[in-house]
Design goal:
CATH topology of chain A: UDP-N-acetylmuramoyl-L-alanine:D-glutamate ligase
Radius of gyration of chain A: 17 Å
Helix content of chain A: 40-55%
Order of helices and strands of chain A: HEHEHEHEHEHHEEEHHHHE
Structural class of chain A: alpha/beta
Shape of chain A: globular
CATH architecture of chain A: 3-Layer(aba) Sandwich
Number of strands of chain A: 9
CATH class of chain A: Alpha Beta
CATH superfamily of chain A: Ribokinase
Number of domains of chain A: 1
Largest sheet of chain A: 9 strands, mixed
Oligomer: homotrimer
Strand order of the largest sheet of chain A: 2-1-3-4-5-6-7-8-9
Distance between the termini of chain A: 13 Å
Strand content of chain A: 5-15%
């Protein structure tokens, strides 16, 4: 931790207990999460949801999605392979989940990379009250600032969050939260989870996670479970989910041997989510609050 | 086995030989199975089909599905992520497969959880002669009794099959088989595989299988291969497939170490299906006939 | 190597260096590959692309695909689960990628097995300049000769490439390359990678690769990265990708223990792609040029 402007609170016992409680609430209540998500990483999202203690259901036809979302605890909308059939399902399911008071998370995959993605994400935000919007810095900037320099589904290098830019990014996230009413989760090497007043800076994770497809999608899916089980603590629940994903990335990395690569790493990350408990989370979470 | 009303026949050598023969017929004939299935678990279904000795093909556009089903041995219809484009493909492929005398299995994922799922499953049953209908107790009850209390894609607790309710569930399955002409496979902690006269009660499996997405879908897919290779013995072929899946769940569980979780477990289950042979099946099958 | 008509050049040092250079160019430039592919194997394709050093993005709605393909390096079109919504996306993305000079690969999965697949593949070839067309012998014959005896997604036995038929198949591949302007990659026990003048015969691989769904799809995806990073050497780039996939199949097979099956094998193949470098490729590549 080099930045002197940020106060480290890694040892804040109360905060650690809170994160652990978020995890345990998921395991104790098995929230049913409705996912309208992409077909690239959907299987990993389902297994990650089961691993963390939630229960997944996928439904993306507009008629089906309306009924399914009503029996769920929360809704996860991921635009990774959006199309003209699933966009109306996202909107309708979102409106119904909203009217039922369900927490809803948006993962604007590739916002900024195509007009359809950027405009769909914006339309969703205009019509649905999201509890959480989670993306990389390029995606969130595309939504907040109208810029479009996203490189595919990964953050553009020009947007990189560094120790130097961190204070500005925190302010940007708090402002965008203030504007949207959603907790903003900007994930990358350093994760910023902010509402309009408070931000968690999380330093869990491992660079090799970027060599697996779907770590972001899996994080959004398990965040869906965390906010479903912790509806009064959306910010803390989101921060807990982000710590969980990053910590499991670290723990899984330690299991790898010289012959293992990204496929085994993917399996081990989901395995770690399956085996994580509150005690391990308290030991491994690396965060501060600003 | 506590129920005194049910006669245990675990040691029935003739039945064990029959199950082993079902397995070997799959390995010897490599049935090509057309799957119209959900995008959540489709990759695992394809690998499970290859593992058991079958060959998978997926086609869900109505024009494509009609041609593809004609060159296959059997058809597996799974409504897990049904939509307005795939429902007509299910109907048309089903009618063609039916007219060609192909065995067809229905997996009514989430029937009872949404109107679209329940009605689609009913429409399919009205228009296609299924050889097998396989689901959890909540899904099968939704189809047979018109009730709708399915909790997502898992069985509702109120529907749980216990030793006490087992005789009633067996009668229910036999009656629904009589009505539909299909073998009814109700899977859960205890599996009931019934035609109108005879039922297998199967006690293979492991509770951790419910922590993987797609064990039910994989079972339906491999049942597609088993009924394709054993068209004169649909009941026995289905019972064999159910034993295989459960036994592989048991065997895979024994391979797990303390760090493994549901993702590794998924891989090991498919691996066990790949390595299973008639001898292992005869040693491990746990069933009785009522 | 039994055929006396073919000259072995396994020790051609210049060719080996060229293949290794193809690999290193991928790792050094991280080509972004747009994939319009099937939902069965898409996750493995994405992880294989990341493993080889590329970056995947999937977009199959026609509006989205047009924008996404423009920001990519190359395009991979796989018709494995084509439908009426994705076919226009294939055509439009192909035309745009073509106009931008992006290398494009076609994987005509199941051509010959259904009218829709055969006709779609032909329409794509008529309207788009493909750099590479990769399929099994049955699929390529269906496109070149108009025959239709493909058995599902696997090559028909009648079409098997043997030492005896190899010279004829090489001539066929060269002729079809001459007609289409694309490098033709016919993969199977022996792989033939040909332009109109030169063919690589590649003998890497392991028979167990046919027990995994998606080895062909993964190969097409990583070929997309290889041709993206080596636009001046499409033939050599394709040959390198084919050697990589086969060699990783061999190396992964050696890691298997007695309890492992096709699911672990799939993971190990992707792991091997992740860990492969130019040195290992030069040691393991088995090919000759005719």
């Amino acid at each position: 931790m080099k930045s002197t402007e940020l106060t480290a609170k890694y040892e804040n016992k109360e905060e650690l207990e809170m994160l652990a409680k978020m995890l345990e609430n998921v395991r104790n209540t098995t929230p049913l999460v409705h996912n309208i998500t992409n077909y690239v990483t959907v299987n990993d999202c389902a297994n990650a949801l089961l691993a963390c203690g939630g229960s997944p259901i996928m439904a993306d036809d507009v008629e089906d999605a309306k009924d399914i979302t009503a029996i769920c605890t929360s809704l996860n909308i991921n635009i990774g392979t959006l199309n003209k059939n699933t966009i109306p399902a996202m909107l309708e399911a979102g409106k119904i989940a909203d009217s039922l008071g369900h927490p809803i998370i948006l993962d604007p995959v590739g916002a900024g990379a195509s007009k359809l993605r950027t405009e769909t994400a914006k339309t969703l935000i205009e019509n649905i009250h999201f509890s959480v919007i989670r993306g990389n810095i390029s995606e969130i900037k595309a939504l907040a600032l109208g810029e479009g320099n996203t490189k595919g589904v990964d953050a553009d290098v020009a947007d990189a969050v560094t120790e130097e830019t961190l204070p500005n990014v925190v302010k940007f996230a708090k402002d965008f939260s203030d504007k949207t009413g959603a907790v903003i989760a900007i994930t990358g090497a350093i994760d910023i989870i902010a509402d309009s007043n408070k931000a968690y800076l999380i330093r869990n994770g491992h660079p090799m996670m970027s060599k697996i497809t779907g770590t972001g999608c899996m994080l959004s899916a398990i965040t869906g479970a965390y906010i479903g089980a912790n509806q009064e603590n959306i910010l803390e629940a989101t921060a807990a989910a982000v710590c969980v994903m990053g910590l499991c990335g670290e723990r899984a990395y330690k299991r790898l041997n010289a012959n293992d690569g990204n496929s085994t790493y993917r399996n081990y990350i989901i395995d770690e989510i399956y085996n994580l408990n509150g005690e391990k989370l308290k030991e491994g979470a690396k965060f501060e609050i600003v």
